[in-house]
Amino acid sequence: MINITIYHNPDCGTSRNTLAMIRNSGSEPDIIYYLDTPPSRAILTGLIAAMGITVRDLLRKNVEPYEKMGLEEYSYTDEQLINYMLEYPILINRPIVVTPLGVRLCRPSEVVLEILPDRQKGIFIKEDGEAVTDKFENKI
């Protein structure tokens, strides 16, 4: 069995599409509802490092705490931004997927295809009707 983990928000279409693509590859991932169970500091910093992105790249910008706290200002240190993400998990962009082939922030959702060990088992169409894979299991 392949070990796949998704940091998931079921209210997010991108997250739902990503989860569906994982399942369409034949895997059932471990699902972490990160708004209810935020990652620890060590896990969050480890995920950021594994993705090879900056802390600011993982910061979700279109939510109230971002604007209210003035996080668009670049005067905040990475440590401060991580503290805010841990205090307000809604500030963590999602979905994050961990597989044996890597860790990615799956925005757009089809980024997950880069790290899934198995190909899609069939055609995949996103919730909005956009086809992601065709009948030959190729990315469109």
Task: Give me the CATH fold name.
Answer: Glutaredoxin
Figure out the total of helices: 5
- Cα gyration radius (Å): 16 Å
Q: Could you give the order of strands across the largest sheet?
A: 2-1-3-4
CATH class designation: Alpha Beta
Helix coverage percent of residues? 25-40%
- Mass-distribution shape: globular
Largest sheet: 4 strands, mixed
Number of strands: 6
Overall domain count: 1
What can you see in these coordinates?
- The chain has helices at about 15-25, 40-50, 55-60, 65-70, 80-85, and strands at about 5-10, 30-35, 95-100, 100-105, 125, 130-135.
- The mean pLDDT is about 95.
- The protein has one domain: Glutaredoxin (3-Layer(aba) Sandwich).
- It is built from five helices and six strands; from the N terminus they run βαβααααββββ.
- The protein has about 140 residues and is an alpha+beta fold.
- The longest helix has 12 residues, at about 15-25.
- Strand 5 and strand 6 form a beta hairpin.
- A four-stranded mixed sheet has the order 2-1-3-4. It has a two-stranded antiparallel sheet with strand order 5-6.
- About 30% of the residues lie in helices and about 15% in strands.
Structure characteristics:
alpha+beta, 30% helix, 5 helices, Glutaredoxin, single chain, two-stranded antiparallel sheet, 140 residues, four-stranded mixed beta sheet
Give a brief outline of the structure.
With 140 residues, this protein is an alpha+beta fold.
SSE layout and pairing:
Elements: E1 5-8, H1 13-24, E2 30-33, H2 41-51, H3 55-58, H4 64-68, H5 78-87, E3 96-99, E4 102-105, E5 124-125, E6 131-133
Parallel strand pairs: 1-2
Antiparallel strand pairs: 1-3, 3-4, 5-6
